[in-house]
Design goal:
Helix content: under 10%
Mean pLDDT: 95
Number of strands: 8
Low-confidence stretches: none
CATH superfamily: ApaG domain
CATH class: Mainly Beta
Strand content: over 45%
Structural class: mainly beta
Radius of gyration: 16 Å
Order of helices and strands: EEEEEEEE
Number of helices: 0
Length: 124
């Protein structure tokens, strides 16, 4: 299976009620949908994120699965989850990859394209 068989969409949004701008704490939620367009099931084994704020500070986050799960995604199916991140700036970027496992044990990386985290109406 090729990484292109896994289609990842991202939908970030700012959580004003959880943020404290006076303390340089901006909280964002992001919803990720992982669609399996391949012909065999895959399991999301782990994740790797690179989170960069507007000051250029980079944080790498790696871990097993997502939101406490290692979902198995059947051909033609999708898995959606929501998580969150805090930044010290009003704008940031997230990108990364998921390690996916096929039933035969082969693993591959499914890239997550960079997406912007920003306050509403801050950037047009």
């Amino acid at each position: 299976m090729t990484p292109g068989a896994i289609h990842i969409t991202t939908q970030p949004h700012y959580l004003a009620e959880r943020s404290t701008p006076d303390e340089q704490n901006y909280v964002f939620a992001y919803t990720i949908t992982i669609a399996n367009r391949g012909s065999e099931p895959v399991t999301l084994v782990s994740r790797r994120w690179i989170i960069t704020d507007a000051n250029g500070k980079k944080v790498e986050v790696e871990g097993s699965g997502v939101v406490g799960e290692q979902p198995k995604i059947a051909p033609g199916a999708q898995f959606t989850y929501t998580s969150g991140v805090s930044l010290a700036t009003e704008v940031g970027v997230m990108e990364g990859s998921y390690t996916m496992s096929q039933e035969n044990g082969d693993e591959f990386q499914a890239p997550i394209a960079p997406f912007r985290l920003s306050l509403p109406n801050l950037i047009n």
